[in-house]
Specification:
Length: 126
């Protein structure tokens, strides 16, 4: 879980600007979804040498991609580097590279439209 959370932090860094809204979103996700305190988040960010582990189940992959998309949108815009990073994670989680753009755009649009992660999972399960 720590390494997955640190992957979310990479999305904050993707555009080269550490935006306050992105950091707030990262902290909220860390606390709500991972049970990590603010102090623990600060420690994790300082000790970023953890290797990345990706979720195993489709539901967990969707949740992780949703979280990445939330952070990408936190500053109100999507930078090309954020989009590329999201696509990279999609491919690294075992999705076809030819589908990575479509998956990334779908997830970013769902987050932009404030569709909940549970609703996104339902759409995918249908």
């Amino acid at each position: 879980m720590r390494s997955r959370f640190l992957s979310l932090y990479q999305m904050v860094l993707a555009d080269g600007i550490i935006d306050a809204a992105e950091m707030e979103t990262l902290f909220r996700i860390g606390q709500e979804n991972y049970g990590i305190t603010s102090n623990q988040i600060n420690e994790l960010i300082r000790d970023t040498d953890t290797s990345i582990s990706y979720p195993d189940t489709l539901e967990d992959k969707v949740r992780f991609l949703y979280e990445l998309a939330e952070i990408a949108w936190a500053d109100g815009s999507i930078d090309n580097s954020e989009l590329r990073l999201l696509e990279k994670y999609i491919v690294n989680m075992g999705f076809e590279e030819s589908n990575s753009k479509a998956i990334a755009n779908f997830m970013l649009n769902e987050v932009k439209d404030k569709v909940t992660v549970e609703e996104v999972i339902k759409k995918i399960d249908e």
